[in-house]
Design brief:
44% helix, 15% strand, five-stranded parallel sheet, 190 residues, Rossmann fold, alpha/beta, globular
């Protein structure tokens, strides 16, 4: 079992990838909600944590809307030198791969906060279970007011893959069920 890492600093991961093709240079409303949650979270960290001066914001976004998002973050009170951009990840899981490569180099990784829409929670849980064991990370969900059919299209792009942790848990559950069924059989006549 891996030892828990001691944290040094904070990393806010803002998932700003979107599928809106019309007016691509503007930021969609549901991404604005994520930005609002990110700015609020940054304010909370900088006013309450002792390692507040070591806080970075990693924005996962395409290159077209990155300048608009950067402007919104700066207007929200985040200094420009604390904002990093990554445009290669296109899904939540790819984002965690990117973050894992980013923090592996550090002796003490930061405490991480993932900011996405509330429906990203399933993908987040799967990715954290399979890739981020031993790291301290928390999910912050932003509301998404789009119609269900548009959200379901985005969900299809972010469908979690089942990693080794998922299959280990399933195997454990199956073994426990078999033992319980052996001890307490359903058939009362035995």
């Amino acid at each position: 079992m891996p030892q828990p890492h001691f944290t040094d600093g904070n990393l806010i991961i803002l998932f700003g990838v979107h599928t809106e093709s019309e007016a691509a240079e503007t930021v969609p409303n549901y991404v604005e909600e994520r930005i609002r949650v990110c700015v609020d979270l940054y304010r909370i960290i900088t006013t309450s944590k002792p390692d507040r001066n070591n806080t970075l914001v990693l924005v996962i976004v395409d290159t077209i809307t990155s300048s608009a998002i950067k402007k919104m973050l700066i207007n929200g009170g985040i200094r420009e030198d604390l904002i990093l951009f990554a445009n290669s990840p296109k899904s939540v899981e790819q984002s965690f791969d990117y973050v894992l490569n980013f923090i592996k180099k550090l002796a003490n990784p930061p405490y991480m906060y993932f900011v996405g829409s509330v429906w990203h929670k399933d993908t987040y849980d799967s990715a954290v279970l399979s890739k981020m064991k031993g790291y301290q990370i928390r999910f912050e969900g932003a509301p998404d007011h789009r119609p269900v059919d548009r959200v379901s299209k985005d969900k299809e792009m972010n469908t979690p893959t089942k990693g080794m942790g998922y299959y280990k848990d399933k195997l454990k559950d199956k073994a426990v069920d078999m033992v319980i069924n052996y001890i307490f059989p359903d058939d009362k006549n035995k």
